[in-house]
Amino acid sequence: MATSSASKSNVVPIKVAEKKESEKKWGTAVMNVGYCILPSILLRAQARLLINAQQMNVLLQLIEHWWTADGKVYPSKDTIAGRVGLSTKQVQRHIKVLEEKGLVRRIPRVLKTQGKTSNEYDLSGLVKKLKAIEPDFRQAKKLQKAAASPGGLKAAQAANK
User: Fold this and answer.
1) Neighbours of 130 (CB within 10 A)
2) Where are the domains of the chain?
3) How many other CB atoms sit within 10 Å of the CB of residue 22?
């Protein structure tokens, strides 16, 4: 008697997880060190937010420490300075400018065991500003599509009348 090649097996095949797009781009080892999610509008709106390259770099360092929506952000100025090649005083000045622009709010922290420690940083001002300018970016995207379509922007505007 011949045995059926279609016999059932009680072995469940292991599914190999496909690499995430970020791992395909950067490599798994690099991604395992950690990553930070940024909205593209932050990078695209740097000039509109009136922040220079060093201020943006300091802001990105603060954002890198913001892991959850309700999480606390409190890297030390020394940590930021060491990462970006600035003095602690320069970092402090850049944070002050970001605060004056309404993007960051410093909150002094005092620990019972250590006394005064690194500030906490509230980034809700940045979020609020990005939400306020998002409609302009959405509209610009629509105009860009219309400009690229047959007949261009004028034809698209005429069709919407």
Assistant:
1) 17
2) 34-147
3) 12
Helix H segments across 15-87? 21-26, 28-33, 40-44, 53-64, 77-84
What phi and psi values does residue 38 have, to the nearest 5 degrees?
A: -125, 140
CATH fold of 34-147, please?
Arc Repressor Mutant, subunit A (1.10.10)
Give the pLDDT band (50/70/90) at residue 3.
Answer: low
Q: What Cα–Cα distance (Å) separates residue 83 from each residue in 56, 79, 135?
A: 13, 6, 34
Question: For 89-140, what is each residue's pLDDT tens digit?
Answer: 999 999 999 999 999 999 988 887 877 888 999 999 999 999 999 999 999 9
Distance CA 132, CA 49 (A): 11
Distances 128 to 17, 49, 62 between C-alpha atoms, Å: 37, 12, 16
